[in-house]
Design a protein that fits this description.
Blueprint: E1 11-15, H1 19-31, E2 36-40, H2 43-52, E3 57-61, H3 70-80, E4 88-93, H4 98-104, E5 111-114, H5 119-134, H6 137-144, H7 148-161, H8 166-179, H9 183-196, H10 201-213, H11 217-228, H12 237-249, H13 253-266, H14 270-283, H15 286-300, H16 308-320, H17 324-332, H18 345-360, H19 364-377, H20 385-396, H21 400-413, H22 418-430, H23 437-460, H24 464-477, H25 482-499, H26 504-520, H27 525-543, H28 563-566
Parallel strand pairs: 1-2, 1-3, 3-4, 4-5
Helix pairs in contact: 6-7, 7-8, 8-9, 8-10, 9-10, 10-11, 10-12, 11-12, 12-13, 13-14, 14-15, 15-16, 16-17, 16-18, 17-18, 18-19, 18-20, 19-20, 20-21, 20-22, 21-23, 23-24, 23-25, 24-25, 25-26, 25-27, 26-27
């Protein structure tokens, strides 16, 4: 007869490369009444289980005797979104120093147990973790369903109930508010948490992220440095990311590079070296980029955490260092399956890099063929590494006009993407076209400005529908241009305000633009202000007693096209839609 306990409903997965240890852990779970237990001996098998089953508990050994340890697997699962928010992840380890490893990571397990872990040890941690989850079950359900607004309301309910896990509910609320681009609301939560328990690292770090999200980079630097200089926060690597991001936003790329190097020295994980290598590549520090990506590729080869882009960036770095033969050898090595999948974009980028390497070695016929293969696989006009690699391949094989035109189109596609513009400028320098940087940047900026001005002019004349159609046509040509996405969102809101009625299709499009912006510009103060503008717009419309259709003869309020850059306040002059607009409507 099956044992019925408070844990009997759990579906568990045990990840351990030792059959004996795996059997022992399965037995412990059975003693706790958990009868539905699956097993995996390596990260690849674990991923297959996680992708096809809904687990509530995972026990994972830290040292899996593979290229991917338990901590790296946890980080991969959390960052990829493959670990459900309501799944508990326990780490089993013989390492007495694992606590410091977890403390330095951005992703901590829900609990960790030292070997030999007994059934009572697991039960003790499980009870605490489940009690904590029980306090925020509605929050977790809302997060699982990606309903962030409901998650905030459920956090409020959990906080109002009080109890031993109130700080946990506050942490979830503040994190969700930041995801909703509501940094000022998040600030209140972090400050309230610090009032309850001064010195909380996550709350202090949260305030640094608030400053960063609001574009207050000097203040973000002060707060984040205060965290890393404290005893309890010295290994909080997320604080180093805030410092590096703020320095880069202020134009101090070298300073950002130094900070990322410090973080990689503290925890020399593939993730840390990847961040350092990417920053070094953008800054033109090829020696550091090569050293960092060498470590990443070596550590992740044949691992579930391997990324094709690591190999591609390292190959480009080798070419730029004057080592095309080594770049070819790296690309030929089957370090990642995507590099050899004929129709995968990574394969196209590999062909573009191969073309550069062949051209550098004087094999122009073979180089031209490789460049043609790359062009047949890769799409045009993306502001990304692939476009730059293909443009460089075309330039190096005698098709300079085509390559420069490709770069110009990509710059137009996202001329406000500072990291891409930096990468494109470096590419022009390395291909002997440094004299064209200013011209191409000016042309890209002017071309996009004309498209945006055309839409603004239609809005000024009162043709909101025409303005929205115009800017969306531009967006269709340049779907990742952050300036156009911001403009499209703003014009969508202006259209709602001018018509003084709710239009669900316009609201859905505005939200889709903001979702894309959050991916392209994480933590941006400009996106946060636009989020607020949409909330205020919807709040005003919902608060109006009877939405009024705007007639053709009604005067059109003046449109301030520069409002976003000035203060983020886009309210139309004249009579408001409602006396008090709710900022929570969105």
């Amino acid at each position: 007869m099956a044992i019925v306990t408070p844990y009997s409903h759990l579906h568990a997965l045990v990840i351990d490369d030792q059959p004996t240890q795996q059997a022992t852990l399965r037995g412990h779970l059975n003693l706790l009444g958990i009868g539905k237990v699956d097993g995996a001996t390596n990260p690849d098998a674990a991923l297959k289980h996680i992708r096809r089953s809904d687990y509530q508990l995972i026990l994972c050994d830290y040292n899996l005797e593979t290229r991917t340890d338990g901590q790296q697997l946890l980080e991969h699962l959390r960052e990829s979104g493959e670990l459900p928010v309501d799944c508990l992840f326990f780490m089993i380890t013989a390492e007495a120093g694992y606590a410091s490893v977890a403390a330095a990571s951005e992703h901590n397990p829900d609990a960790y147990l030292l070997k030999p872990a007994t059934a009572s040890d697991i039960a003790e941690r499980l009870k605490t973790a489940l009690d904590r989850r029980a306090a925020v079950v509605p929050v977790m359900q809302a997060l699982k369903e990606r309903d962030l607004d409901r998650a905030v309301l459920e956090c409020d309910e959990a906080i109002a109930r009080g109890g031993r896990f109130v700080l946990y509910a506050m942490q979830l609320k503040a994190q969700t508010l930041l995801r909703l681009a509501r940094p000022e609301d998040a600030r209140w939560v972090y400050e309230e948490a610090l009032g309850l328990r001064p010195g909380l690292v996550w709350a202090r770090l949260g305030l640094a992220r608030v400053e960063q999200a609001q574009g207050r980079h000097d203040e973000a630097l002060v707060r984040a440095r205060d965290v890393v200089e404290s005893r309890e926060g010295s290994r909080a690597l997320a604080a180093y990311d805030v410092i590096a991001g703020s320095l880069e936003a202020r134009g101090d790329g070298r300073g950002a590079l130094d900070v990322l190097r410090q973080a990689a020295d503290q925890v020399p994980s593939p993730r840390r070296h990847r961040a350092l290598g990417e920053a070094a590549f953008r800054q033109g520090d090829l020696k550091t980029a090569h050293a960092s990506f060498s470590k990443v590729v070596a550590a992740t080869k044949f691992s579930v955490t391997a990324q094709a882009q690591d190999v591609l960036t390292m190959a480009q770095t080798l070419i730029d260092l004057g080592q095309p033969g080594q770049a070819q050898q790296l690309l030929a090595d089957r370090a990642h399956p995507d590099l050899h999948s004929q129709h995968h974009p990574a394969c196209g980028v590999a062909s573009a890099l191969e073309a550069q390497a062949l051209a550098a070695r004087g094999q122009l016929t073979e180089a031209s063929a490789a460049a043609e293969r790359a062009a047949a696989t890769l799409m045009d006009s993306g502001a990304d590494f692939a476009t730059v690699a293909l443009a460089r391949a075309e330039i190096s094989t005698g098709k300079a006009e085509a390559g420069l035109a490709r770069l110009q189109r990509a710059m137009s596609a996202d001329h406000e993407n500072d990291r891409f513009m930096q990468m494109a400028s470096k590419a022009l320098e390395r291909t002997g076209h440094a004299d064209k940087i200013e011209t191409l940047v000016a042309e890209a900026t002017q071309a996009m400005k004309q498209h945006i001005d055309s839409a603004r002019q239609l809005l000024r004349s009162g043709n909101a529908a025409g303005a929205l159609a115009n800017i969306e046509a531009t967006l269709a040509r340049t779907p990742n241009n952050t300036a156009v996405l911001l403009e499209a969102t703003q014009i969508a809101c202006m259209s709602l305000r001018l018509n003084k009625r709710m239009d669900d299709s316009v609201v859905v499009r505005a939200r889709s633009y903001l979702a894309k912006l959050e991916q392209l510009m994480p933590g941006s103060d400009r996106v946060a202000r636009m989020q607020r503008y949409l909330r205020d717009t919807l709040g005003a419309l919902l608060a109006a007693p009877e939405p009024v259709q705007r007639v053709a003869s009604a005067p059109t309020p003046a449109f301030d096209a520069d409002a976003l850059d000035r203060d983020g306040d886009f309210d139309l002059p004249g009579e408001p839609l409602a006396p008090q607009a709710s900022a929570q409507a969105a």
